[in-house]
Amino acid sequence: MIGNLDNRPRARRRLVSAFAIGALAWAAATAASASETILFVGNSFTFAAYSPVWHYRAGEVTDLNGEGVGGVPALFKVFTREAGLDYAVSLETSPGKDLRWHIDHATPKIDRAWDHVVLQSFSTLDAAHPGDPVTLISATQVLASMLRARNPAVDIRLDATWSRADLTYRIASPWLGKPVEAMAAELRAGYDKAAAAAPGVKGVIPVGEAWTLAIKSGVADANPYDGIDYGKVDLWAFDNYHASAFGYYLEALMIFGAVTGRDPTALGPRETAAMELGFSPAQTAALQTVAHDELAAGTRP
User: Fold this and answer.
1) What's the per-residue H, E or C state across 148-196?
2) What does the angle CA 74 – CA 210 – CA 35 come to, to the nearest 5 degrees?
3) SS3 10
């Protein structure tokens, strides 16, 4: 009996030691398998208004506004899973808003530690002054400072959007009557200025220029007002302002490639989201090639 009693402290120490080792191993495994976090901040161009992408796979992402949005973030989530990556995807979006609005109305939702953040502002940079990047620049500076205070290593990127067909072909604007690529180029220049003025912003994702490349390479139609050429996709929705499923898909491919460093063409012509959206393998491959080529051309700054 005395011998058994003498062995108890030693047995207890072995048990505690084994528990500690197990706990450390569990913690290490949990840390190794933790998802990278990414936040999308934007408007209807991010939540994919007027397309089947709007509420696509909404249950697989976290809509911080609780509106059941899947959108471009959900496409990104599908792509990363297919690539063997693990991202916890969140979004904070509101229609027709610029980045300043999100600062004024959604800071408590945004002001957290994130690994990656993609910021997308108003379609003309400034609703009152189309083409003017001043508000975008100041808002980007505020958001970058806020996000870096939470995580100094956060990867912040700006999503430079596309030329609007309505403002190019029909509605009075600084781009009316100009080549379809003009608006995207000017938007990109504004986003470049915002990125350069905000320490910590890693770069600009040239989504609009990918649209331009899709048009110039014959993948997409240049002018939806005169009909869609046979064999080409229409990147715009019915309002010739927002994107179609094809346009949002190309946007998501660009973000996927820029954020992860993976080649969009590796997803393949029978990529899951494209098949579920009803794209043909040829259309899917063509859009992936456009994204690959635009990303390969390099992003500024």
Assistant:
1) HHHCCCCEEEEEECCCCHHHHHCCCCCCCCCCCHHHHHHHHHHHHHHHH
2) 30
3) helix
- Contacts of residue 187, Cβ cutoff 8 Å, sequence gap at least 6: 124, 125, 160, 161, 162, 163, 208
Rounded Cα distance, 190 and 98, in Å: 13
Distance CA 159, CA 252 (A): 10
∠ CA 258-96-207 to the nearest 5 degrees?
20
Give the N- to C-terminal CA distance of the chain in Å, as an integer: 77
Q: Residue 46 is part of a domain; what is its CATH number?
A: 3.40.50.1110
What does the angle CA 101 – CA 170 – CA 277 come to, to the nearest 5 degrees? 65
Instruction: Return all residues near 153 (Cβ < 8 A) that are at least 6 apart.
Output: 115
Residue 19: inside a domain: no
Alpha carbons 38 and 118: distance in angstroms, whole number: 8
Give residue 76's domain range: 34-296
CB 272 within 8 A of CB 78: yes
Q: Phi then psi for 2, rounded to 5 degrees?
A: -60, -40
Question: Would the pTM of this model clear 0.70, i.e. be above it?
Answer: yes
pLDDT single digits (tens) 111-143: 999 999 999 999 999 999 999 999 999 999 999
Q: Collapsing DSSP states into helix, strand and coil, what is residue 142? A: helix
Number of domains the chain contains: 1
